[in-house]
Write a structure and sequence with these properties.
The structure is a single chain. This protein is mainly alpha-helical. Helices cover 73% and strands 0% of the residues. It is elongated. Keywords: DNA-binding, Transcription, Transcription regulation. This is TetR/AcrR family transcriptional regulator.
């Protein structure tokens, strides 16, 4: 008869996500995971696989719960540009807030640390970015159709520019102690929507 697990795998995965998010992949050892999760090494391997597989599961978990407001805000009926502007300003404000600034975004952190040489992480990062770009694109298409955005503006190119800006805001916000840097960049980018 199989033994039941003596720990909650969901709680352990959340704890692993917290640790990886705070320290990054390379700086987190299996010993750190054992201590932080309160779960034996053999149980971690049996439940989640190796450290890399656990990291991927943590990244997936983060992506599942990633800002549910995005769809709601960018798909709400009515004018679309105010929602796009509010989103950009919210990202800039979060990037300049001490708690958010120090941890950053787990997807962005993963892109910077592992994306260039880890195809599994790069795929997950790309999927996250595609989802955000798609939401922005749809909102900008609505804005152009509603006359909020000049007819000559390319919603796809603007969505891509905003995606890159938002990721850059997260990186710069994490490393900079000057909140005006990200706020000013966000406001300048928003002038392209006029």
């Amino acid at each position: 008869m199989a033994r039941t697990k003596e720990f909650d795998p969901d709680a352990a995965l959340r704890a692993a996500l917290e640790l990886f998010w705070a320290r990054g992949y390379e700086a987190t050892t299996m010993a750190d995971l054992v201590e932080h999760l309160g779960v034996g090494r053999a149980s971690i391997y049996a439940t989640f696989g190796n450290k890399h597989e656990l990291y991927l599961k943590a990244l997936d978990r983060y992506a599942e719960g990633q800002d549910p407001r995005l769809v709601e805000e960018l798909s709400a009926p009515g004018p679309a540009l105010p929602a796009v502007r509010a989103l950009v300003r919210r990202f800039a404000a979060e990037a300049a807030t001490d708690g958010e600034r120090l941890t950053g975004c787990f997807v962005t952190n993963s892109a910077a640390e592992l994306g260039p040489h880890d195809t599994a992480v790069a795929r997950r990062v790309e999927l996250s970015w595609e989802q955000l770009e798609t939401l922005l694109h749809a909102a900008l298409v609505r804005a152009r159709a509603g006359g909020e955005l000049p007819a000559g503006r390319d919603p796809r190119a603007l969505a891509r520019m905003l995606l890159v800006l938002l990721q850059g805001v997260r990186v710069v916000g994490k490393a900079s102690s000057d909140p005006a840097r990200v706020r000013d960049a966000a406001e300048q980018a928003l002038t392209l929507l006029d």
